[in-house]
Amino acid sequence: MFKMFDYYKKSRTKSFHLFSILSFALIIFVITFSDRLISNFSSSHSIAFVSKNSSEQPLRSTFVHKSILSKKEKIVKEEEEIEDHVNLMPLFNLTEEQRISWFKKKLTEFSILKSTRLSRQFSSRVNKFFNTKSCRVQLFMTWISPANSFGRREFFALETLFKSHPKGCLIILSRTLDTPRGARILSPLTQLGYKVVAVTPELSFLFNSTPVESWFDDLKNGRKDPGEIPLAQNLSNLIRLAVLYKYGGVYLDTDFIILKDFSRLRNSIGAQSISANGNWTRLNNAVLIFDKKHPLLYKFMEEFAFSFDGNKWGQNGPYLVSRVVERLMTSTQKNQLNFTVLPPISFYPVDWIRIPGFFMKSNTRSHSRWIEAKLLQLSGETYGVHLWNKQSSSMKIEQGSIIGRLISEHCLLCKDIYSS
User: Which residues belong to CATH 3.90.550 in the chain?
Assistant: First the structure.
């Protein structure tokens, strides 16, 4: 708090020239340092102070809207994003006991587990979004990585999704995109009237009254081994099950190119591969289409809590849904659960080993004929193409390739297709 001095009483014998110099120096001091000094005060009182250019104008205060972050808060958020995905992984080859000990020490740094003012608004924000929009289909995605890694490939997934579902409503469950930076990333779509929003999830709410409630309670209290695989990745596998169980709709990974409307599909999961006799051999959880409170989702969550292993890739995702459905196929509950296993051509027309061929341009006449035949096949039987981002993220989309042509035909803004 600045103290004002009466220079006239103390310096009546001073010349007017000296008074002017001192006054000017004081004004410069206030203008130079007021923002820095008062910003500390404003961060705790939600008030920002603005100085006028004229020295005759006093400092005035204005209230800042709560959704606007200060520069300091933005820096903190960016630092948290980096920490979540760089530092929050245990060393390999630790024992279970050592990992649990490490996890307990790091618990406070796992922001995905924290309940915040924003996350506690999750239920009301989701309900408001769906209830005030005219939604033909409820769509969900998750984004657990920093906002700055949400790139052109991911944005093409949104573009092609809305090209096929212009009246769909998409919620991206993400702490990092539920920020001013995330709003800017999504703004090219929202400015066109498409209904998409990022919402910070409240995991305690999502998992409440589900089979994973006690599992999550043990986890956030440091009584579970998180495993060597990044915890956020495994939690993403669980979040998609819980959000569909609570609300119903469609879950999609962000590494898809959507080709046509699938809003008429109900209670479906896609096969990733099939055997020579046509029976599925592996399911995948990158696309899930289920009604609210569907019993199969409940069984998936039961399996997650019972068999969680954070050291095996796929154990809590694709392998989990495959295990549960395989058991049901031989049980009396098969017909009672009312669900469909879609063939690979629906969402997984190419497996992760062969995905590089979809990014390559034609080099020979026979290759050109193969591309044309594949595009014709996809146009008739495929709802979307999974890009297997873990394998394809570093691949350049070549002009004339299958992926390049699919994006060109199904995008909205269609910017920088071949530079992504």
Answer: 86-343
